[in-house]
Specification:
By secondary structure, the chain is α+β, with helices and mostly antiparallel strands. It is built from 2 helices and 13 strands; from the N terminus they run ββαβββαββββββββ. It has one domain: Sandwich (Jelly Rolls). It is globular, with a radius of gyration of 17 Å. The structure holds N-(carboxycarbonyl)-S-(naphthalen-2-ylmethyl)-L-cysteine and fe (iii) ion.
Length: 215
């Protein structure tokens, strides 16, 4: 007799998306309060800001960074910088717990000894989005990228190496972690406009941490 479907299996905690890309559902859920406290402390030193693209548009996503380097954009272009251009000060240090989580996620995905030197912190409010792009400002694209989603869910969109490659969509929720390396490190990706809502951990916002080896 078939099992009654009262105990349908939970969605897999570990979902390969493509070669080198792994989704770890809920991997950061327990660490979320510590991560959010760390983000608040970082934002006191290096406040979230809407940077300007080389084309002259303010980004809808507000950003800050921690670690030896921070990602910046202005009319001159995209790059990594050792100092916060708004204050002239070095970026806040990357908290040990941030680094440990990123390393653990990378190891799960098969990337041993990931040594991130930057964590970009993206803050989305309803309507904020990130257009389809590649992450190619890092010196060595041999290292993976690890991203952590916190707060309101978002629809993440990803394709392939070519801009015109077919896109897939994925709902990213509080505590979800993605690792992208190897053949998928330079895949195009973006985030659709955030829908309004309330999350107990973040209120009306989504936060995303992106760990990279940039220098
Ligand atoms: C796939 N951030 O900051 S994280 C970014 O949710 C960025 O804030 C998004 O894209 C966010 O550059 C997406 C997931 C992600 C990050 C890096 C990738 C997916 C990736 C690099 C290569 C392929
Ligand atoms: Fe990106």
């Amino acid at each position: 007799m078939a099992q009654p479907d009262l105990f349908a299996p939970p969605p897999p905690a570990r979902e390969p998306l493509s070669a080198g890309a792994l989704l770890l559902r809920g991997f950061a859920r327990d660490a979320a309060p510590e991560l959010l406290a760390g983000i608040a402390a970082i934002a006191e030193q290096a406040p979230f800001r809407h940077m300007v693209t080389p084309g002259g548009f303010a980004m809808s996503v507000a950003m800050t960074s921690c670690g030896a380097l921070g990602w910046v954009t202005d009319r001159r272009g995209y790059r990594y910088a050792g100092r916060d251009p708004d204050s002239g000060a070095p970026w806040p240090a990357m908290p040990a717990g941030f680094r440990a989580l990123a390393q653990a996620a990378a190891a799960e995905a098969g990337f041993a000894d990931f040594q991130p030197d930057t964590c970009l912190i993206n803050r989305y409010v309803p309507g904020a989005k990130l257009a389809l792009h590649q992450d190619r400002d890092e010196r060595d694209t041999g290292a993976p990228i690890v991203s952590v989603s916190l707060g309101l869910p978002a629809v993440f969109q990803w394709g392939g190496l070519q801009r015109g490659d077919a896109l897939r969509r994925l709902a990213l929720e509080h505590g979800d972690v993605l690792a992208w390396g190897g053949p998928s490190r330079l895949f195009h990706h973006g985030v659709l406009a955030l829908k309004p809502g309330h999350h107990p951990a973040t209120g009306a916002a989504r936060l995303n941490l992106t760990f990279r080896r940039a220098g």
